[in-house]
Amino acid sequence: MKPFWDNTYKDLEAPSTFGNGQPSAEIVDISLKLNHGASILDMGCGDGRNSLFLSKKGFIVDAFDIAETGIEKIKYLVNKENLKINAFLFDMKNFKFEKSYDLIITHGCLHLIDKKEWLRLIDLIKENTNIKGYNVHAVFTNKIAPPIDMEQFFIGLFLENEIFDFYKNWKVLVKESYIFNDEHANNIKHTHAVNKIVAQKIK
Fold first, then answer.
1. If DSSP codes are grouped into helix, strand and coil, which group holds residue 46?
2. Smallest Cα–Cα separation from 165: which of 137, 193, 144?
3. Spatial distance between the Cα atoms of 46 and 62, rounded to a whole number of angstroms
4. 145-203 pLDDT, tens per residue?
5. 7 Cβ partners below 8 Å, 6+ apart?
6. What is the pLDDT at residue 17?
7. What's the rounded Cα separation, in Å, for the pair 116 and 156?
8. Helix (H) or strand (E) holding 106
9. Nearest to 134 by CA among 179, 180, 102
10. Is the pTM of this model over 0.85?
11. 35, 47, 55, 70: which sits with the fewest CB atoms below 10 Å from its CB?
């Protein structure tokens, strides 16, 4: 069984399944801080709401997701809007860094893999971030139970505030904990507990 978003990505003309098609607020803020030509990696990019925005700003964007429908939609929009995004199909558990980046994003995806896998990934993400570069993580936590229809996918829920512990030696720009109600196509509604961090590598 595939998650609901795998189906919703199939509508190539619809706004992104998440965030009503708009980039996350912290991504907009960081885009004002990055140098021209900055390199960006969007891990678990979905159907590309953040990647598309950053590409339009002129940044160099690599983006991948395990959902084939999401990557197909990004490629369609890249061609339609004459953008440049290196979008590819990949499972983040197997990702190996071949270069470092000025911004690495994991938005709503790390909790979809086992904890031992995301522990390893966070170390790699930090290691492969350029000095003065940024990491953005938005993760779901165990502060509340996952939606019943999502239990089988949320196999690596974070402990509340756990993500913050990995960035004690970085400059933390955003540190948020909140609960929000999410509504998707076909009247799918969920409530999630989220921890969000934006941190800058200072040394």
1. coil
2. 137
3. 13
4. 888 888 889 999 999 999 999 999 999 999 999 998 876 556 667 788 999 999 999 98
5. 69
6. 64
7. 9
8. strand 101-107
9. 102
10. yes
11. 35
The reported pLDDT for the residue numbered 184 is 59
Mean pLDDT of the chain: 92
d(CA 101, CA 84) in angstroms, rounded, equals 17
Q: Which amino acid is at 141?
A: T
Where would I find the H helices in the chain?
A: 4-8, 25-31, 49-56, 68-81, 115-127
CB 188 within 8 A of CB 181: no
Please provide residue 81's backbone torsions phi and psi, each rounded to the nearest 5 degrees: -105, 5
Give the Cβ contact number of residue 44 at 10 Å.
Answer: 22
Q: DSSP alpha helices (H): ranges in 9-162?
A: 25-31, 49-56, 68-81, 115-127
For the chain, which residues make up each domain, given as ranges? 1-9+49-91, 109-134+141-146+191-203
How high is the pLDDT of residue 117?
97
Residue tagged 């558990």 (tokens) = 93
